[in-house]
């Protein structure tokens, strides 16, 4: 049997169902929501935890849904800063910055 998961944002009628055209989070009823792998659901919970402290992974059932199961935040269309950072690091390497320069810059940013 296929193991499918979703994300509950913490309240009634609060299962994550994607985003609308303006980027607002859409929600739906318990038992429904955007289908994803457990790893993807856990990643989405980490992204939403500061905004939704009670966010948690929930099990979902496909039912009549004929949608592709999301395996990453990118599949969900969720924008994350860490993905941006990875892309920027690749661009810096391509521009000739040394690994030491990149590490030092990131380290200084983390240290404040």
Q: Can you walk through the features of this model?
A:
The chain is 38% helix and 17% strand. It has 112 residues and is an alpha+beta fold. The strands form two sheets. The chain has a two-stranded antiparallel ribbon. It has a two-stranded antiparallel sheet with strand order 2-3. A hairpin with a 5-residue loop joins strand 2 (15-19) and strand 3 (25-28).
Layout: helices, strands, pairs:
Elements: E1 4-8, E2 15-19, E3 25-28, H1 38-48, E4 56-60, H2 73-76, H3 81-94, H4 99-111
Q: Figure out the total of helices.
A: 4
Largest sheet: 2 strands, antiparallel
Percent range for helical residues?
25-40%
By helix and strand content, what is the structural category?
Answer: alpha+beta
Distance between the termini: 48 Å
Q: What general outline do the C-alpha atoms trace?
A: elongated
Radius of gyration over all CA atoms, rounded: 17 Å
Q: In percent, how much strand structure appears in the residues? A: 15-25%
Strand element count: 4
Strand order of the largest sheet: 1-4
List keywords for this structure.
112 residues, two-stranded antiparallel sheet, 38% helix, alpha+beta, 17% strand
């Amino acid at each position: 049997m296929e193991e499918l998961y979703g994300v509950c944002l913490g309240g009634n009628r609060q299962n994550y169902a994607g985003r609308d055209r303006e980027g607002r989070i859409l929600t739906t009823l318990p038992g429904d929501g955007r289908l994803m792998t457990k790893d993807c659901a856990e990643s989405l919970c980490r992204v939403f935890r500061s905004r939704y402290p009670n966010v948690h992974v929930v099990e979902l059932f496909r039912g009549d849904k004929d949608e592709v199961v999301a395996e990453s935040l990118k599949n969900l269309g969720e924008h994350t800063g860490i993905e941006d950072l990875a892309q920027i690091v690749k661009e810096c390497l391509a521009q000739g910055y040394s690994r030491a320069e990149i590490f030092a810059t990131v380290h200084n940013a983390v240290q404040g």
